[in-house]
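Reopening this ticket.

The earlier resolution said the output was attached, but the attachment link was broken on my side. Pasting everything inline this time so it's all in one place.
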Amino acid sequence: MIEDVLNFRVHHVFDTSFSRTFSLLESQREFVKRFKRKEQDSKTLPMLTSACPGWICYAEKTHGEMILPYISTTRSPQQMMGSLVKGHFAEQQGLSPQQIYHVAVMPCFDKKLEASRSDFYLNEAETREVDCVITSGEVQKMLEEKNVSLKDVEPAPLDTMFSSVSEDEFLSHSGSGSGGYLHHVFTYAAKQLFGEEVKELTYKTLRNKDFQEVTLEKDGVVQLSFAFTYGFRNIQNLVQKLKRGKSPYHFVEVMACPSGCINGGGQVKPLPGQNPKELLQKVEDLYKEERTLSPEEDTRVAELYQSWLHSVGEERAKELLHTHYHAVEKMINGLTMKW
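Inline output:
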């Protein structure tokens, strides 16, 4: 196994697709709750996704209390896995949280900042839910430094503690390469709120390929209006519309990187002479080749909701699956003050 080659001394390897299922399920339920109370609270919609730490940092530092009520409280897959590993898994292994060193491999450098947030620190155990984050590009660098090629590494079975599939198969979700939030929340909401079974989503490109929308219409009336917006230029346009009260959307999948997570800053870089766009397309095609499973069909996740989350009580379960955001006060520059 690769951890043996690099002397990582890793005992278990889990697929984050499993924890993403929790994120998708919670996002679906959160949206439906928000939609039902939209008449009572003008800041429940649009619901903006929260899985991208670059976007969250920007929102907290730049727009603060104006934007935070719109952001989904559902944890990202990385921090969902933090709850699972330092909570349920630790209990199953008879270990305390601080006896586990949890490393996450992510496509984004900002995931390191996310792991360091005080919201994800276990005070009683004096440990973080995610102890260390390394990017996929950093993993590649480690391999190169050891002169290791993945083609020469003996394959080993996946760990199945948090897996809903066989040990020789990876799991994916329908929708974008950024987690599929728009896809799953849209299809779930269409069914739960309007009784509509949506088999395939039709996207309409707006300003550019990183800003697209999809709608649900019934008798000529738009019932649901969703969009995904990637890259800070598109995000800024979205925020300006929110400030003016002119956003037409109920839900927006927001990612800081153009093209989303598959183009994250921590991803493996193109080889010399390789076209970056071709690499990006190849990664996206490979991602879509994996077998998909809808969150509702994941029986192992359903079992954990019953055996783990129901046993800790509603309030504690909410803490394990959701989080909070904090407006960051802007520093005052003494040179620009009028004394």
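Reporter confirms the inline version is readable. Strands lie at 47-48, 103-106, 121-122, 127-128, 132-135, 204-205, 211-218, 221-230, 251-255. The mean pLDDT is 84.
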